[in-house]
Amino acid sequence: MSERKLKRYFSQEFKIKTVKLIIDGQRPLRAIARELEVDPSLIRNWKRQYLQDQQEAFPGKGHLKPSDQELRDLNKRIVDLEEENEILKKAISIFSKKPK
User: Of 8, 39, 50, 61, which is most buried with the most CB atoms under 10 A?
Assistant: First the structure.
């Protein structure tokens, strides 16, 4: 029977602290990976994500970065307004027809 590994989740704070240990040169990446029992590539990915955008790194599972969420909300608002505009155009055309 094969041993199943449980999927582990790490908090934003934990990832940032781990990455900062590597960036500050306090501990080698492989040593930290061994201690945490994770693949070194996982920590490398965390480091890459953190260096790309420190303010919005690791928003959490199922969450968008605040800037991405704002963009999504604005696009949804545009679609809603365009739909309302089309409805109003149809209503104007219906009410502006002259009776026969």
Answer: 50
Condensed to tens digits (0 to 9), the pLDDT of residues 76-94 reads 999 999 999 999 999 888 8
Contact 76, 68 (CB under 8 A): no
What fold is seen in the domain 9-60? Arc Repressor Mutant, subunit A (1.10.10)
CA dihedral 28, 44, 33, 14 (to 10 degrees): 100
Domain assignments of the chain as residue spans, ordered by start = 9-60, 64-100
Helix axes 29-36, 12-23, angle to 10 degrees: 150
pTM above 0.70, yes or no: no
